[in-house]
């Protein structure tokens, strides 16, 4: 299992928070949140055919942002902070994971180029084969 964000990276998403051995939650608790959220992400991606851990460089920043949203929802909830902010972060986390579930090529390692919405690898390959076949017949 990989951790898709880190305590230090969370600072860019929540600059008002600092995690230390005495903060609430502590840096150790936040590391646990990161592991838990990363595990959930991997389970959901794996269920849609994505090999984990994801190593595709272009996908890692995206996964960092998704993981951070899930972790910050837990951080804010553990602090009893604004429930609307907890909900906003949790919704962002779920929405982005659903986007991956709908189009797993976004994070797949073998997908070396970005995949535009609506792209269908099998349909495009069949179309290319049909064109090739028609050219040969002429």
Cα-atom Rg, whole angstroms? Answer: 19 Å
Overall geometric form: globular
Strand content: under 5%
What's the average pLDDT?
A: 85
For the terminal residues, how far apart are their CA atoms? 53 Å
Give the helix/strand class: mainly alpha
Low-confidence stretches: 111-138
Task: Write down the secondary-structure element order.
Answer: HHHHH
Sheet with most strands:
none
Secondary structure: helix percent: 55-70%
User: How many β strands by DSSP?
Assistant: 0
Number of helices: 5
Provide the fold topology:
Blueprint: H1 7-10, H2 27-46, H3 57-78, H4 83-102, H5 121-137
Question: What this model shows, in words?
Answer:
The chain is mainly α. It contains five helices and no strands. It has helices at 7-10, 27-46, 57-78, 83-102, 121-137. The longest helix is centred in the middle third of the chain and has 22 residues, at 57-78. It is globular, with a radius of gyration of 19 Å.
Task: Spell out the key features of this protein.
138 residues, mainly alpha, globular
